[in-house]
Amino acid sequence: AVVETYGGTGAAFAVATAGTSRPGTSHLYLEDDATWYYITNTPMVRMNMEDYGVSVEENAANIVSVQNFPNPFNESTLVSFNLGTASDVVIEITDLAGKVVENKNLGGFVSGTHTFEISADNLNSGVYFYTLVSGNSRVTNKMVVKK
Q1: 137: Cα separation from own chain's centroid
Q2: Which of 17, 42, 47, 92 has its CA 20 to 30 A from that of 1?
Q3: What is the per-residue pLDDT across 91-100, written as a single tens digit (0 to 9) for each?
Q4: How far apart are CA 16 and CA 28, in angstroms?
Q5: What is the pTM of this model?
Q6: Residue 13: CB partners within 8 Å, gap ≥ 6?
Q7: Tens of pLDDT along 22-56?
Q8: Where are the beta strands (DSSP E) in 54-145?
Q9: Residue 4 CB-half CA count within 13 A
């Protein structure tokens, strides 16, 4: 991860520690002497985003809720989702390694609650993640296929 300050009158971020790190896993870069140092504490970064024009109103999630039932499933599962405004919806299914196993445009939906079915025909037993995309909103949930 790269952490950088953007100036201004207030602190854009603060670095603290959050417990002890496993040996060789945490490093700290000091710009003063352009050197990386091994540290034994886990770095924690807290960012203050309110001075950068981000607000709930500007970034309101269009996808209000998503869930599938049954979960785990062996043949198919129904995904129920609620949209705040009308928009196109895309579903992306990935395996645990992050490989996309299915990507499908579901088409346009009006605001409100909707359902669609995910079939296990082309899925092996295991854990998968499905991501629903609507406009700038993305919601990811876990599903388990047991055959």
Answers
A1: 10
A2: 92
A3: 999 998 889 9
A4: 11
A5: 0.59
A6: 3, 5, 45, 46, 47, 48
A7: 666 666 666 677 777 666 766 655 554 444 443 33
A8: 63-69, 76-83, 87-95, 100-109, 112-119, 126-134, 137-145
A9: 2
